[in-house]
Amino acid sequence: MSRIRIAPSILSADFGRLAEEVKRAEEGGADWIHVDVMDGHFVPNITIGPAVTRAVRDATSLPVDVHLMIEGPERYIEAFADAGADWISVHHEVCPHLHRVLDQIRQAGARCGVALNPSTPVEAIHEILHELDLLVIMTVNPGFGGQRFIAHSIDKVRRARDLIAGLGATGAHRADASSCVIEVDGGVDRTTAPGVVEAGAEVLVAGSAVYGHDDGVSAAIQELRAAAGGES
Ligand code: DX5
Ligand code: ZN
Q: Helix crossing, 217-227 with 18-27: angle to 10°?
């Protein structure tokens, strides 16, 4: 099993002290910083844009993982790449021309991901899986932090892992990418992490479990890593 990466979501951080909160995650052992971008259309909530993403970029040397929960994401890919995003994920549900958008993300210099809502079957992206660096499986309905993990998602992660393993077997994956990594996003904490990791998730996004932990960010990250089966 490859090393589990913990990606704290700044959605649950104190935005008034954002740089400090990002640094706290880095010092506490985070692997990536997850940035949730919401537009008030695709999801009800509105959050942040490229300027704040740039502030996150400037506060850390960790990879910045941008999750676009916006309609028409093709209008903003370059802006987020220029702001320093290392990974950019778009939602399948808003991209009729997904192949083109993935190309656009790569052209902009970032690694490309696709996120799936809980009601979108993983099979919907079967034809494009070999193009992906990252598959984001939403384990809550996107829009807010602090929601309850949808237990059925574990089967979905498992199916995704099997589909990706199948690509490996046929050598179908893009030549310039090693493999597609599975990220889970929503309701991940020490109780839900073991199941998703066992099913094949390698990147765990966690907002409230990290920034809402009574013992602080560092303890939260260690706890998650231990629950995921890694060293604490
Ligand atoms: C939800 C966001 C998540 C969110 C996770 O729409 O995509 O990244 O911040 O927050 P928790 O871990 O609190 O569910
Ligand atoms: Zn997210």
A: 40
Q: Is 143 in the pocket of ligand 1 (CB under 6 A)?
A: yes
Q: Give the pLDDT confidence of 8-21 residue by residue, as tens digits.
A: 999 999 999 999 99
Closest ligand 1 atom, residue 149 Cα: 14
144-160, pLDDT tens digit by residue?
Answer: 999 999 999 999 999 99
36 is catalytic: yes
Cα(150)–Cα(138) distance, integer angstroms: 9
Which two three-digit tokens encode residue 184? Answer: 């889970």
Regarding the beta carbon of 50 and ligand 1, being less than 6 Å apart is answered no
CB atoms within 10 A of CB 169: 8
The answer to whether 93 and 104 have CB atoms below 8 angstroms apart is: no
